[in-house]
User: What shape does this take?
Amino acid sequence: MRLGNRLVRYQSNCVLRHAPIVQAVIATFLFAGTIGSAIADTTDAGEKLFKVCKACHEIGEGAHNKVGPHLDGIIGRTAGTVSGFNYSKAMLEAGTSGLKWDHENLAKYLERPRDFIAGNRMSYRGMADTKDRETLIAWLGKASSAKAAVDPKALPVAVPISAEARSFTDIVLAQKGDPEYGEYLAGECVTCHQSSGHADGIPSIVGLPADYFVHALFEYKTNVRRNEVMKLRVVNLTNEEIAALAAYFSKLEPK
Amino acid sequence: MQGGLTRRHFGLLLSTSAAVLAVPAYLRAQGKPKVVVIGGGAGGATAARYIAKDSENAIDVTLIDESAKFTTCFFSNLYLGGYRDFKSITHGYDKLESNYGIKKVTGRAESVDVAAKTVKMADGSTIPYDRLIVSPGIDIVYDSISGYSKEAAEIAPHAWKAGPQTELLKAKLDAIQDGQNIVMVAPPNPYRCPPGPYERVSMMAHALKGKGYKNCKIIVIDPKEKFSKQALFQEGWQKHYQGMVEWYGPSVHGGIKSVDVKSGAVTTDLDTFKGALLNVIPAQKAGAIAAAAGLTDDSGFCPIDASTMRSTKDPNIFIIGDASIAGAMPKSAFSANSQAKVAAMNVRGDLIGSKVFPAKYANTCWSLIETDDGVKVGAQYAPAEGKIAATSTFISQTGEDAALRKSNYEESVGWYSGITADMFG
Assistant: This one.
């Protein structure tokens, strides 16, 4: 019964030693920043669903183009027509051939964006649930300001971020990032964030505006966004390196 | 040359002028510098792709691998657990050929003539190189466990190189009946994928639990006193698979003496453990070509220069991935992919004088314990005093909430898509 005794010793040992430590770590891995939501505080189901869109799209008063076009006046808008946004060829063609974002088309698009308009750049797999799509579309109609923004470029570019983050972003972007150095450094990013812009469990960072990119990294550094992997990568980056990465990724085109 | 001739430029001049002299004008296109990569896994495929991509066709890249398709060892545990099918962890090289102009040679590299700078293939052909990247992964040291052999692995699979062995282990796992036990012999350090054996235990337990089996045990006989993410796995086993997993280190079993694959028995100093399924993961060494090329040291792995991944034994050869001695970096696909980029940059610097930046390395290893319960460990690395040393690290904590664990798993799925796209284009 040597085995028995040693097992008991071992098992009691390990159970005690590794008693769970309760930690209050609240992490949403969604690439959901704190940006651009001029929406009322009451979180309804549609707004919750919009969280996944928020990384790339703004809606409501003051919304401007980010990775994706702003969504003001989206319902009824002709595809590919927000001024100042660099659309894919596929989306422009869809617009030219008369595609309008009515409820029906939006629902089809959101279900499987890549199937509905082949070759468009939106890095989103799709929303499988019919009800979720309806809820989201209804919310989009409600949240978008009454009329479409006239010229998104004329809107204030500064996003509502903390003074600290703003000053960090300014300091970093004051130096001209070297995209070639950025491309080398990006080797570390593209192991997870695909250089094609496809997203599959890890958000796309291709084409992110430099300002947004630097601000996001600052938030990882300061635990506003909580992700240990990202924090680890970011704390080791110098300002020069962050600027180089921002320069590289902001110019990268999704495939 | 104004502004002086650097060593790198000098080498470039030499190689181009030699090429111009040696071949007729119409063949000058073939006078491009040649890179041969042995091994088409996380290290080799990445290196081949980055050299071809970033040199914009200025370098000829040949990628040698025995297989026409590559099955990733990473995520093969998720195949055992039923989360992935085999096809989803198997990848072709067609995009590397069509999109990047890489020449894929399917065959076994047998030896390297370092003086002539040629790779000799098993079929007798030779492939010349200016720079060689050796990324063969690991070979199993069968005789590190008495009673184990290549033949024995057909009965008691190691499944530590993905492919038929993985499918064999899955078939044997699927055949387990309620009440039967599984015995795993875990490997000694250093080995590929430190948390791998324990993730595998978790995935096997998940599969058995999923069938409603209540009387199966997975017994792990470990030659190590401690293992990667130990607290996390043991917490997870308690939580999800209570009473199913027994782990014994050498202070309990006293030492592994032998295995008998026919009876499924592992004999230790303490006792003999028997299972209907025996999974023996022996000690490991660098893939055979590394030793054949004279690149290994007494450890069986390959010493490298920490700032370039260049072999300390031959300046024309780089070694990346599991076969290299990469200091504090674990042997993982993530590490190999990271090392590949440093090697690729230095190869381009050598051959076409492109910019070489200071080396930086990274690793993250995710492990799945049970559905939506993923944990991770990671670090950043940089060369320091001749070795690759960690500059910062993190590891998941015990007692974390479910949302974080779920996001870890989702992140690992995203990483799988990311790294395989980074490898295979």
About this structure: Chain A is about 45% helix and 0% strand. Chain A touches chain B through 46 residues (CB under 8 Å). Residues 8-41, 152-158 of chain A have pLDDT under 50 and may be disordered. The domain at 45-154 of chain A is CATH 1.10.760.10 (Cytochrome Bc1 Complex; Chain D, domain 2).
